[in-house]
Write a structure and sequence with these properties.
Blueprint lengths: L1 H7 L2 H66 L9 H14 L7 H19 L3 H12 L10 H31 L1 H14 L4 H27 L2
Length: 229
């Protein structure tokens, strides 16, 4: 009976069936890796809160001083004019032509396009052509850019969903690896190791922050002197 059903399927339908099974397996793997990433991030955030609880007042003081330093530095630097290149303007027009929210009447699709346009606007303001190219490429290769119904259209969308899932799996792995390379992650490991040995590493960090505060105050004083304040 199964052979008879298989014989009645078109090649596109058979390929779609395979791709849907492949996509389902990828989505299961993706869910597991998303959980791994979320767990690592949650553990790191919990440590960060504890870290800031102990040395938070010092960080507040550093932030206050650095904000003042940045403000005074702005007076010493000339403002940059916004002068987009012709290539940047052309690229932005391409993006807007394809993904502008007014090009759809579907509320959900409009919201997605609005978010993409917001990203494009920021990239344009930053004069970041590579970022705009990335937005354009992501749109052109997205499942949503495939219009129409039927087996062929569904097959194409499924293939692109598979590609997206594969890319996300790779991105998650890179995010986890990058997370493990951050100073905060490394510090957490050091603090845990030190705690197991009965040593309070965070107290030493608080002392180091006191030194940073002293340095920042001296820098701020020098800037004020240069500005005649």
């Amino acid at each position: 009976m199964e052979n008879a059903i298989a014989l009645t399927q078109t090649p596109e339908e058979q390929e779609l069936e395979k791709k849907l099974a492949e996509l389902a397996a990828l989505e299961t793997a993706l869910a597991g890796r998303e959980l791994d990433l979320a767990t690592n991030q949650a553990q790191l955030h919990a440590f960060e809160r504890e870290y800031l609880r102990i040395v938070g007042s010092r960080y507040t003081e550093i932030d206050r001083l650095e904000a003042q330093i940045a403000e005074y530095m702005a007076y010493l630097e000339s403002a940059k004019d916004f002068k987009p290149s012709d290539s940047l303007k052309k690229l932005y027009r391409q993006v807007a032509k394809l993904i502008h929210p007014d090009l759809t009447t579907d509320d959900r699709e409009r919201l997605r396009r609005q978010n993409l346009m917001a990203e494009a606007n920021l990239a344009y303001e930053d004069q970041d052509e590579e970022r705009l190219k990335g937005i354009l490429h992501s749109w052109e290769t997205s499942p949503e850019s495939i219009q129409g119904e039927g087996v062929v259209a569904t097959l194409l969308r499924t293939i692109r969903q598979i590609a997206q899932s594969q890319m996300r799996l790779k991105a998650i792995q890179e995010e986890i690896e990058a997370l493990e390379q951050t100073d905060l992650y490394q510090l957490r490991n050091q603090v845990v190791t030190a705690q197991q040995a009965g040593h309070d590493l965070l107290a030493e960090m608080a002392s180091q922050l006191d030194e940073q505060i002293t340095t920042a105050k001296e820098k701020l004083k020098d800037l004020k002197t240069k500005l005649g304040l």
